[in-house]
Design a protein that fits this description.
By secondary structure, the chain is mainly α. 68% of the residues lie in helices and 3% in strands.
């Protein structure tokens, strides 16, 4: 199938498919005599695997590692579990950082008069680094 059909079947745009080839997530497909890319069913499975990995927030490097493990029938599931656990830990850190930002902003909003005056607690706290200080104490 051509790149348009592969894009439709995988749910990934043709532009992203070419990008994944460029960065080495997807092996370069066979080409016709005219130079058009021809994708196999296995290529579609790989693209779907990449898409699902992206949806879970894995980085490009993590996806490369996951793809290698997925294709390696001699792998140990412990390797996959370790990679997934590292990703979970990173996601939990991001969640904590985001929650700290929400808390800080919510405190600022709660303190803001929200009236017609120019004085703004929110802008003052951002100016003085209150957001950064609050995040540091959480992390």
């Amino acid at each position: 199938m051509n790149i348009g059909q592969a894009a439709k079947q995988s749910g990934i745009s043709a532009k992203m498919i070419r990008y994944y080839e460029e960065i080495g997530l997807l092996q370069a497909p066979k080409r016709t005599d005219a130079g058009y890319r021809m994708y196999s069913d296995q290529d579609i499975k790989t693209l779907k695997f990449i898409q699902h990995s992206r949806e879970l927030g894995f980085s490009t490097e993590q996806m490369k590692e996951l793809l290698g493990l997925w294709k390696n029938q001699g792998r140990q599931s412990a390797e996959v579990k370790q990679l997934a656990q590292k990703h979970i830990d990173a996601l939990n850190r991001k969640i904590a950082d985001l929650q700290a930002m929400v808390n800080t902003l919510q405190q600022s909003v709660n303190c803001c008069a929200g009236d017609h005056q120019a004085e703004c607690v929110i802008l003052n706290q951002i100016e003085h680094g209150a957001v950064q200080e609050d995040r540091k104490s959480v992390v």
